[in-house]
From TrEMBL:
It comes from Zestomonas insulae. SUPFAM superfamilies: CinA-like. InterPro entries: CinA-like_C, CinA_C. The lineage of its organism: Bacteria, Pseudomonadati, Pseudomonadota, Gammaproteobacteria, Pseudomonadales. This is CinA family protein. Residues 4-150 form the CinA C-terminal domain.
Length: 160
């Protein structure tokens, strides 16, 4: 996929309802989808869960997962995606957590997860990606990355 318009068309083609669970991007993924005409057919909802308490309270991320792996880990992103899948009417969820600005090795490191529950295809996949740039450049790049990866995540989940 090359554009958000193509992602919306993909979701329409496969009759998928999307939810997002966003930490670092704070709603940018949902906003990008909502900016496309016809997105009401495919966008279910977006969760903005910046704090540990929000991740736990809204999406059921376990405190133990945060303690063991850190707030910005694939494990947390996976629990965010699964929690959003459980609490929404969506078929597929994109989640992210990470640090857009830091003075250490985690600067620009984001963790993504995609969870799906369609017929006999249920599961979650995740990845960690490093982005370069200023804080908001990283956030925008991360939102685009996750959305443009959606068809790839979908295929990975369908293959099991």
């Amino acid at each position: 996929m090359q554009s958000i318009e193509e992602v919306v068309s993909f979701l329409k083609k496969y009759q998928l309802r999307l939810a997002t669970a966003e930490s670092c991007t704070a709603g940018l993924m949902a906003a990008l989808v909502a900016g496309i005409s016809g997105s009401g057919e495919v966008l279910d909802r977006g969760y903005i869960v910046y704090s540990p308490e929000a991740k736990q309270g809204c999406l059921g991320v376990r405190e133990k997962t945060i303690e063991l792996y850190g707030l910005t880990s694939e494990e947390v992103a996976r629990e965010m995606a699964l929690g959003a899948l459980e609490s929404s009417g969506a078929d597929i969820v994109l989640a992210n957590t990470g640090i857009a600005e830091s003075d250490d090795d985690l600067d620009g490191v984001l963790c993504f997860a995609c969870a799906m529950n369609i017929a006999d295809h249920r599961g979650v996949v995740s990845e960690t990606v490093h982005f370069s740039g200023e804080r908001n450049e990283v956030r925008v790049a991360a939102a685009h990355h996750a959305l443009l990866q959606l068809p790839y995540y979908y295929e990975r989940l369908r293959e099991g």
